[in-house]
Amino acid sequence: MGTPETSREPCPDRILDDVGGAFGMGAVGGAAFHFIKGIYNSPKGARLVGGSQAVRMNAPRVGGSFAVWGGLFSTFDCTMVYLRQKEDPWNSIIAGAATGGFLQMRQGLGATARSAAMGGVLLALIEGAGIMLNKIMSEQQQQQQMVMEDPGAGLPGMPPMGGPPGAEESSSVGSWVGGWFGKGKEPEPASSGSETKVLESFDAPPVPSFEFK
Known about the structure:
Blueprint: H1 11-41, H2 47-84, H3 89-103, H4 109-149, H5 167-181
């Protein structure tokens, strides 16, 4: 399974890909949000018209804001890949912090530092969640492969496929009892179908005779 870093587009094409994806996400999400908000704020009888008008006015703006953020993030990410010559979560974390700080540069140094810290923490949480998800999925795939190779290997309480369920326990119990009472249970000789066993503690019943008296 590919990681989020290796499954993305290569760096020059990654910027355009992220710009388009961010614009689509922002446009769809902003359209849904402002449509509901427009319906709520419009008077009765004109709710649908007010919702559609709010979508036309605000959805492109939200999509553009998302596109700017995605483009800057991908640009900083590609810059870090070029400088560090490797793909890892630190590139995304640094790019998120740089993007947040760059977008707030006009608000002063304090706002820039706060926005950069927030962007870095947000991207660190996203990257951590992605790593945990990939780890869980890889462990599940390994367990499925083990179960396919040996059906009893991944199930608790299932014996291995080599012998019957109670073979090892019965042999261990027999050896323990035999150690206490002098000897274990001796194996019985194999008997054929023609032989008969007579119980020594009971007398055999008399054989009936069918002679006419």
